[in-house]
């Protein structure tokens, strides 16, 4: 479906319109009385969310991000599904599954009010996806843009047997200075330290970043907070359907090695991810469904 058709079928003036990125990917622009946002239909990926009461975007997107078929866009909120992290069966399949590098479908758009806009994207199994993951499914992503940003990812299992998944919102939060940032809400929480060979450790106090960090926290509560004094704001993450969270920053060495990051980009973002990962595996019965939700609020 081309941009003209998308606008005819789904645009709602003045809140929702579709534009074409220079790559050819369709983008959805949202502009209501409380916030602006940009969503890539490719990957079902939020690229920008900015409340009009704040001067900075919630999200980070690399200036060197790839906008190419088959590649993930570096930044925003990539969707990891039906597995989080490396291929769980070691078959050489892509890390974080296949949703983030496929074109979604626009299922519905709504102007709920002058202040709140809702977009629903969907993805179903195809012969191509079944070669990667053999199960029939329906995936629905609801995005609500208002004074806060809410993502709801619903997996429907169309198999005749149960399936197991891991998944996540791989959210890149924009920060003013990584050296000043703290993540609150993880004190006294166990985590797997992937930088240290997956050793299990215990978090003491707030999380601060002064080197490469790649951790899966387990038995996590429903609210986490990123304190960002450099930008004078607090980012509040509230979730349901998740018992685990990932904190990731590649730091200098890995940033230098990544073709889709600028050398010092690690100073400008922190990933705090609402996930089902590690021991937090989701089993969905035949005909059943599972919902993962995250809400992001910006406070001064």
From TrEMBL:
<dbReference type="InterPro" id="IPR025532">
    <property type="entry name" value="G6P_1-epimerase"/>
</dbReference>
<keyword id="KW-0413">Isomerase</keyword>
<dbReference type="GO" id="GO:0047938">
    <property type="term" value="F:glucose-6-phosphate 1-epimerase activity"/>
</dbReference>
<dbReference type="Pfam" id="PF01263">
    <property type="entry name" value="Aldose_epim"/>
</dbReference>
<comment type="similarity">
    <text>Belongs to the glucose-6-phosphate 1-epimerase family.</text>
</comment>
<dbReference type="GO" id="GO:0005975">
    <property type="term" value="P:carbohydrate metabolic process"/>
</dbReference>
<dbReference type="InterPro" id="IPR008183">
    <property type="entry name" value="Aldose_1/G6P_1-epimerase"/>
</dbReference>
<dbReference type="InterPro" id="IPR014718">
    <property type="entry name" value="GH-type_carb-bd"/>
</dbReference>
<dbReference type="GO" id="GO:0030246">
    <property type="term" value="F:carbohydrate binding"/>
</dbReference>
<dbReference type="InterPro" id="IPR011013">
    <property type="entry name" value="Gal_mutarotase_sf_dom"/>
</dbReference>
<feature type="active site">
    <location>
        <position position="170"/>
    </location>
</feature>
<feature type="active site">
    <location>
        <position position="273"/>
    </location>
</feature>
<protein>
    <recommendedName>
        <fullName>Putative glucose-6-phosphate 1-epimerase</fullName>
        <ecNumber>5.1.3.15</ecNumber>
    </recommendedName>
</protein>
């Amino acid at each position: 479906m081309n941009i003209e058709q998308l606008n005819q079928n789904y645009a709602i003036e003045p809140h929702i319109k579709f534009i074409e990125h220079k790559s050819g990917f369709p983008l959805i622009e949202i502009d209501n009385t409380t916030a602006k946002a940009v969503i890539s239909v490719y990957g079902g990926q939020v690229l920008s969310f900015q409340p009009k009461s704040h001067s900075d975007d919630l999200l980070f997107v690399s200036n060197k991000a790839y906008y190419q078929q088959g590649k993930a866009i570096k930044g925003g909120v990539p969707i990891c599904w039906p597995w989080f992290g490396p291929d769980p069966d070691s078959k050489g399949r892509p890390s974080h599954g296949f949703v983030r590098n496929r074109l979604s479908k626009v299922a519905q758009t709504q102007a709920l009010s002058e202040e709140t806009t809702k977009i629903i994207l969907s993805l179903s199994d195809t012969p191509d996806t079944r070669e990667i993951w053999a199960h029939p499914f329906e995936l629905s992503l609801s995005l609500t843009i208002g004074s806060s940003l809410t993502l709801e990812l619903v997996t429907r299992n169309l198999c005749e047997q149960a399936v197991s998944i891991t998944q996540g919102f791989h959210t890149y939060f924009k920060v003013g200075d990584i050296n000043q940032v703290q993540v609150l809400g993880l004190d006294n929480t166990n985590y797997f330290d992937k930088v240290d060979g997956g050793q299990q450790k215990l978090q003491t106090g707030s999380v601060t970043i002064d080197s490469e960090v790649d951790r899966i926290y387990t038995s996590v509560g429903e609210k986490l907070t990123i304190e960002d004094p450099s930008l004078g704001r607090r980012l509040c993450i509230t979730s349901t359907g998740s018992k685990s969270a990932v904190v990731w920053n590649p730091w200098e060495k890995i940033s230098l090695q990544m073709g889709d990051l600028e050398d010092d980009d690690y100073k400008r973002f922190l990933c705090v991810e609402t996930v089902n990962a590690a021991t937090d595996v989701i089993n969905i019965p035949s005909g059943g469904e599972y919902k993962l939700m995250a809400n992001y609020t910006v406070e001064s």
